[in-house]
Amino acid sequence: MSLDWIYTAISWILLRWHALWDAIGIPDDRVLGTNWAWILAIVFLVVTLRIILFPVFVKQIKSQRAMQALQPKVKALQEKHKGDKETLQKEMMELYRTEKANPLMGCLPMFLQIPVFFALFHVLQHLDPTISEKYKLLYGWSLEQFDSAANAHLFNAPISAKFGSSAAELAAVGADGTTVKVLAGILVLIMMGTTFLTSRQMILKTGWAEDPQQKMIQRLMLYGIPFSLLISGSLFPIGVVIYWVTNNLFTLAQQQWVLRKFPPVQMNKNASTARPASSGARSTSSGPVQPARTGGLFGRKAAPEPVSPVVDTKALAPKPGAKPVNPKKGTRPANKPKG
């Protein structure tokens, strides 16, 4: 199946933003070694796509909350149908249908962004000044727009270049190899760090799963994906890395807002239902998901809750027939026991 329609759509949004910045008066010429109109076009391409996907992201959070609330029932089914995978699968599907929970909804925003990411990757890879003119006109580009984007720079490094660019590729765009490698290396490290923080933010707010398989997936998302970017990031054009970093920063802000509006559920092992966490609510016990920690991105541990002193109410209660201490006016004395 041809993906030209996605490439054309991404190019159209990118070109519209570039035209807007050009109309505002941001020059195409380099300022501080940077063609800001093209850099801002990539940044606001991210903003446009994330605004479009925002309703899907909210549905993802709601689906995750619903799945957390169902964990006690899921665990009960697992205990009931231990060893009978077929019946367990049918019962779980019926549970999801009845409760209107969709396990796949949590991955939907990521799946929707994958074709967008590869489309932008392809479009930026396509910005090769050595290709013939007929290919420069693909995806709605004019020759002037293509040549301008192909020669756009960020701090004297072309956005179409990458850490692993060959000497011939760098010579074609008039780039210095050392400048490209230093800038690309810094951006890849920022990309890794922000990718790690987006996963950590979600885990700190929702808690580590107790199920071994789910916990393994969480660890893979937290450590595996950022580490893999150390290698794959060298293959990304600088423009793609700018897109990724901007996307991560947008995600951090968006998750912070959504997690405040839709706080994680807290599970009570003595109850089969879950309730939303509130600022004053206490978690009496851990459920399928461990209690979340506060402290933002870096996971400061929550301050221990104050322990109320144990008071012996029997010792403080007045003895039968004893007069009250400092009685107020109008207060009737206690009745004496009949002798």
Features:
two-stranded antiparallel ribbon, two-stranded antiparallel sheet, 339 residues, elongated, 12 helices, mainly alpha, single chain
How would you describe the overall organization of this protein?
The protein has 339 residues and is mostly helical. The chain contains twelve helices and four strands. The chain has helices at 4-24, 36-69, 71-80, 85-99, 108-126, 133-136, 143-150, 167-172, 177-206, 212-232, 238-261, 313-316, and strands at residues 153-154, 157-158, 265-267, 274-276. Strands 1-2 form a two-stranded antiparallel sheet. The chain has a two-stranded antiparallel sheet with strand order 3-4. A hairpin with a 6-residue loop joins strand 3 and strand 4 (274-276). The longest helix has 34 residues, at 36-69. The radius of gyration is 30 Å and the shape is elongated. It starts with a helix and ends in a 23-residue tail after the last helix. 24% of the residues are buried.
